[in-house]
Design a protein that fits this description.
Elements: H1 2-16, E1 23-26, E2 29-32, H2 33-51, H3 67-86, H4 90-113, H5 116-143, E3 148-150, E4 153-155, H6 163-173, H7 175-184, H8 189-203, H9 208-225, H10 238-242, H11 244-252, H12 256-260, H13 263-277, H14 288-298, H15 314-347, H16 352-368, H17 378-402
Antiparallel strand pairs: 1-2, 3-4
């Protein structure tokens, strides 16, 4: 019974989380669609392990592909405990820790318990949910429903918190129709329609880092699959220059003067100074925001239009909050998740298309986290963990069948 409820919870998760931007806090406890459903999912998984003889599944954690990830996560737990004691705001430290361990537990329970049928359905349902979100993005554009604009030009955010996050979310799925057509060596109408829908949403998110991340991810995919296909890369730049405003936004990426005057440079410098002054242990997990006011008072030239800004860089945020060891450890965790996808791509026969699509996503995601705090946006970051877990478990099951 609990195994079935666990599977149903996965389906509910991948359907609702992309289209339900619920985000509230009860004290220091973060409450959002992903946190609530993930908690239910983990509960059912735990009940299955304890009451339905599922403890035998724990052997999956000994998989050699997971050993390095296990090591880095274990080390992060240790560093997180230290960070809690030095953090001035304990509630913020607890909140950030709960978020991170939501991803960890979700990842491991999927690796432990997901079966082949559940995995295939979960991928399909997630893609369908993202298509629904993208269709809503088109509706936003037609009826002007988005609250975000740049110079009176609407920016799509669809069902995500803001356009930056939505642009990054589109990059999770946009590579699939491209890879499918490359692998099949044929153009399929439904793939063309999906690709057009996702490109439209990516384009009118007006998020330049998402554009660059997409082009970089696509370049890596083409390099891996067939270097000759790199010749088609310029075709994906054409939509960026077709619309007058997107063309203007794209051209700013080529201006060194405008780049160096971007507010992000001030935000990055603020985070760097915080890291520099708290080099070993940082200011405490989740405590960046509680030190920010002090830094812009001490360095008024770093002030950016409002009293609180995130660093707009996930890695700098973690170096500032957890110091050199915590920051490096955090980076290695995400590198190892990416590495698992590469392992699957090199060894799988059945999941080549999904694996290569996720390689494109991981390249774009790691790149874009240098410009946005995407790893701290639960509605988005949770799928970096969940989809990687589903893919890796699919590969493990495939290997067992062949054996």
């Amino acid at each position: 019974m609990f195994k079935r409820l666990f599977n149903i919870s996965i389906y509910v998760f991948v359907i609702l989380v992309p289209i339900l931007p619920l985000k509230i806090k009860l004290g220091f406890l973060p409450l959002s669609a992903d946190f609530i459903i993930a908690s239910i999912l983990i509960f059912f998984g735990l009940c299955y392990l304890l009451f339905e003889g599922g403890l035998k599944e724990l052997y999956n954690l000994k998989d050699k592909g997971l050993r390095k990830l296990n090591l880095f996560i274990g080390l992060f737990v240790f560093l997180n405990i230290i960070s809690f004691f030095i953090a001035p705001n304990k509630g913020a430290a607890i909140s950030e820790s709960l978020r991170f361990f939501e991803y960890v537990f979700l990842f491991y329970f999927i690796v432990l318990l997901a079966d082949k049928r559940t995995i295939k359905r979960a991928f399909m349902l997630f893609f369908a949910s993202m298509v629904v979100a993208a269709l809503y993005g088109v509706i936003q554009f037609i009826f002007g429903l988005s609250p975000y604009t740049v110079n009176r030009n609407i920016r799509l955010n669809s069902t995500f918190v803001n356009p930056n996050y939505w642009g990054a979310a589109v990059n999770i799925v946009i590579f699939y129709p491209i890879v499918d057509m490359i692998k099949e060596r044929k153009i399929k109408i439904y793939n063309v329609l999906f690709l057009a829908l996702f490109i439209f949403n990516l384009l009118f998110s007006l998020n330049r880092s998402s554009w660059l991340a997409f082009l970089l991810g696509l370049f890596v995919i083409l390099l891996i699959e067939n270097k000759k296909f790199i010749a088609i890369l310029p075709a994906f730049i054409l939509p960026l220059i077709a619309h007058p405003f997107t063309r203007k936004r794209f051209i700013t990426l080529l201006s060194i003067e405008k780049i160096t005057k971007d507010a992000r440079f001030k935000l990055w410098k603020t985070a760097y100074l915080m890291f520099k002054e708290h080099f070993v242990l940082g200011v405490g997990h989740g405590n960046y925001r509680y030190f920010y006011d002090d830094y812009i008072k001490r360095f008024p030239e770093l002030f950016v239009r409002k009293d609180l800004w995130s660093p707009h860089n996930s890695f700098l945020k973690m170096f500032a909050e957890m110091g050199i060891f915590g920051g490096l450890n955090f980076m290695f965790i995400y590198i190892m998740l990416f590495y698992l996808v590469i392992v699957v791509y090199n060894k799988t026969r059945e999941y080549k298309v999904i694996a290569l699509s996720l390689i494109g996503f991981w390249v774009s995601y790691l790149f874009q986290n240098n410009f946005n705090n995407l790893m701290f946006i639960p509605q988005l970051n949770v799928f970096a963990w969940l989809l990687t877990a589903l893919l890796y478990k699919a590969y493990v099951l495939e290997a067992e069948e062949e054996f």
